[in-house]
Amino acid sequence: MTPAPYNRAGKSGEGTGPTLGSEIHSADDQQRDSNVSHRWRLYFRRPAERRGAQSREPRPPADRFRVTRTKPKRGLVLAPTYGRLLILSASILWSTSGAFVKYIGLPAANMAMYRCLVAATFLLVYFTLQRKRPTFHPVMILMVLCFATMNYTFVASLTLTSSANSIFLQYTAPLWMTLGSYFVLKEGVDRRTLVAVSGCLIGVFIIVAGNREASSNEQWGMALGLAAGLFYAGVALSLRFLREHDPRWLAFLNHFGAGFSLLLVNLVGVGLGEVSPDIFSLPSEPAKMLALLAFGVFQMGLPYVLFARGLAGISPQEAGILTLIEPILTPIWAFLIAGDIPTQPTLIGGAVLLLTLATRYFPYRRPITPSS
Hints:
Blueprint: H1 20-43, H2 47-54, H3 61-64, H4 80-94, H5 97-104, H6 108-130, H7 139-160, H8 163-170, H9 173-183, H10 191-210, H11 216-241, H12 247-272, H13 286-310, H14 316-322, H15 325-338, H16 344-361
Helix pairs in contact: 4-13, 4-15, 5-13, 5-15, 6-7, 6-12, 6-13, 7-8, 7-11, 7-12, 8-11, 8-15, 8-16, 9-11, 10-16, 12-13, 14-16
């Protein structure tokens, strides 16, 4: 007997009930139809969903916990310890300024010019190796002028007075920065900044009043130290305004602009007969010539590279505390190398100034209150 034709409803063509064979074929057909519809639904999904739906089984443990080595990307944040070491290294190198000036013994305009030009050459090589693109903004002109004036006034102060007077008075820059931020940038002033400004004023008063019987050269040196702090604040405010630009390019621009400006001033002075042509003379001793090159590379150029790199690992507040080692070590190096002894009022005023600056930059946590 020939079996009745099969239809998808699982019934025979003559309307009789399903047979055993028809039930088996019906189950296979339903499974096949469901697989086909599932494939069509996967076809219209996204590739990522299609792969995830098709591979439902978990990966074996060897693949799940496989360790892959990846090449580190540029611009990663440094470890805090490494950042602190870089900032401390930059501060120690900066603190050798008084020792270099006392040892080389050239005129202030001469040393300031050569120091900036040597540092600019070093920074140009470093900036070229980094393959960065130079930028320009009109504020950079003001920044370069402030940096050139700061460089000359600070070196001139070191030649006229003690290294302690010069470096402590230059660290009155937070006073001028606070005034500039309030009146120029229209920024608020918090309580800790006011305490630091008050401490700066007290420290300056102790230094100036304690050395009131000094010679005229000493007094001019202290006045130039205060001027160096003023123009250093101008550089800092300019850098704050130009924070979107590459700091390595700004460092090169500062040193090259300062060196070139001092070179032009010296050339004009020699042309007018106001300055002797000996202003361009170099040290005759080979040791002092090497010291002049090291003055530009290791005291000016390299610290800016280390400082910019170290800021990637620590906060600016912590960096401000670590840089306070510079005014502490500057008189020590000058005493050990050139026998430069600071006076007692200078040490007391400098201690007051540094302690107030430390309280300004020292990080703290505000207490948590129920209202906050």
